[in-house]
Amino acid sequence: MSTVRAFFAVATARGWKLHQMDVHNAFLHGDLQEEVYMTLPPGFEQGKEGKVYRLRKSLYGLKQAPRCWFAKLTSYLRCYDFCNSYSDYSLFSYVRGDI
Description:
Helices cover 28% and strands 10% of the residues. The chain is α+β, with helices and mostly antiparallel strands. It has one domain (21-93). The strands form 2 sheets. It has a two-stranded antiparallel sheet with strand order 1-2. It comes from Lithospermum erythrorhizon (Purple gromwell).
């Protein structure tokens, strides 16, 4: 939280315009790095109880879901020349010319 406060303080002092966004169902976009299997919840599909399914994408509730989403977001932002901060890897910046 201190990174966010420091960033807002700098942005306010320099008169920067800030933008925000939200990615709907963000944790569903992450790519799994390992094989993960699960059984369907009870009552989900009749006649398939006891079967095991391999997940192709991340799901909410998986312990690795936040990390998978962050890896996907990081690779996307780096494609557009954003850089991680040295002090906080979750803060990205984009430098264009003298800005």
